Amino acid sequence: MGENLTKSIVCPNCGECVPIVLHTGIQGDISAEEKEKILQETFFSWKCPACGCISQLLYPCLYSDRRYGYMLYFLPPGASFPQWEEASEQEKVRKRIVSSPEEFREKILIFENGLDDRAVELVKYAMVQVLSRQSGVEIRSGVYLESDPEKDRMDFLFLPEGSEKALRRTTKFTMYEKVREVARQFAPAETGFLRMDQKAAAQIMERYARG
Question: 0.85 cut: is pTM over it?
Fold first, then answer.
């Protein structure tokens, strides 16, 4: 079972103080309802029972799934990562820090598709560079959508700077397979919770370029 915490919050619209249940510990292999909300990017949506105002309430929470061997810690911007003793059985578990609902969803899809998120970030990084050069516009963000090794395809969604229209782009799955070894050799060691995002991908490529 997951872990819950009840707190009182003040509605930003009407000022009403209302209790809310925060799901601070989620087991993806058990908590199907919470997992589905994360995948639909509605997990952090909150509706005030007094005035009906819908807002986004981001709070730290730990997500784990024993079937796929990973843990995700959702750390909102500005929040501090907690200090705790990790159990010995967690040593071989992939552990990541995520800071947006989109990244939360993306990591679940990546791990449950049986992929190495380090290699996926490298593919995304390369595609961002190409798209930026082709369009002359900086790419604000990109997320993994799906992949099909048999059809040799991997799909992403990119959002150009200054635009609300996302671009869906496809690359060959073999590209992922080629950079996977680069990720294994030059990515940080799997110790503790890591941020594995586009900044981390850029750092991996810097280490690879230096040899």
Answer: yes
